[in-house]
User: What shape does this take?
Amino acid sequence: MSSSPAQGTFSKIAGDEGADKPDPTEGRNGLRHIASLAMTKVADGLIDPKLVLAWLVTALGAPAVFAGALVPIREAGALLPQMPLAAVLQRMARRKWIWVLGSAGQGAAAALIVLAALSLEGQAAGLAICAALALLAVCRAACSVSYKDILGKTVSLARRGAVTGLAGSASSVGVLVFAAVLILGPGQSQRLVISAIALAALFWGAAALLFTTLEEEKSETGGDSIADFAVLREDPALWRFIIVRGLLVSTALAPPYLVVLSGDGKLGALGGLVLASALASLASSYVWGRLADQSSRRVLMFAGLLGAVAMGAAVVLWAAGMAAGWAAMPLVLFVLMIAYHGVRQGRSTYLVDHAPKDRRAAYAAVTNTVIGVLLLGVGVLGGGAALIGPQATLMLFAIMAVAAFFVARGLPEAEGR
Assistant: This one.
């Protein structure tokens, strides 16, 4: 049977033109996954809490406490609700609808942020934007807890990393354009940043509409697949994976400390940070995705080592008096973000491939809940970390990343089983 144009295109993307393809819907579904995921990733870049929203609330005259609250609200809010959401998901025959609602909800929350930015100032603006971000985070949790299960149902084992990797690289192009506008000068316009957030809202809405067309078979509902912590007792490898992922949060927490070491507190740094992140994603996401299809365990190991090298290099440059150079910290940040994207690809692919097919959502929810608690604790202790200085904090993060390498060595291979 000849393959459809969609199947042929998707096979080229996945690099397996000669493989058997018993499911004629996989090509169409794969392309829908890539387009939907790319749009949501562009939206994520346009509304990045640690960069874009932090700049916006400051520009609106909100107290600094609101800028500091943005990342904990986003990260904890996106992870902690996942166990109850997984229970809802397991009762749904077609899981795509929870992802559709989550994406549409993120678009609505982004629109509320735009409304707040256009109509409020000071503390009122800070409160409204934080509240809207909390809504966005919960909707993001719905997408996160459902996506791995949906991907596992609609795209076969050796092609999932290519889907998420290409979506990440494709979305980077849009974020690169945003970064270029920020760097060239007009990006310092408050109106332009608000317009970017409005565009993010449209992307989330469009992704939700496209995902409604995904061809998904019905899933079994109920049973013993509801997410609970029993999976940790049943699967020791899951505990090891959680420890590895917990240690590797250092790659996500380190970038602000690089900014401190650079000594550049100007608003123009916003564009440079967005540019470094987007270039790293563009250069590495697809490659990491293909490597993860071969061994996501090794991706986690070597991404951790690369992150440790970047963080150590930042401290060495600071000690040598070179951290304030125009290229020093941007280059370090670029390498660090490559490692970060490797961690993201590796952890996502490992969890999908390791989990039993009827328990992917439960595994994802339990894992993300534990990591959410860890991140919330790190946020509370953030002030304490600041007391020891950015250099010591980066060295601590580097040690965590190296430890992740050794712990990940003991993980079983999830691919090719």
In short: Residues 243 and 404 are 8 Å apart (CA to CA).
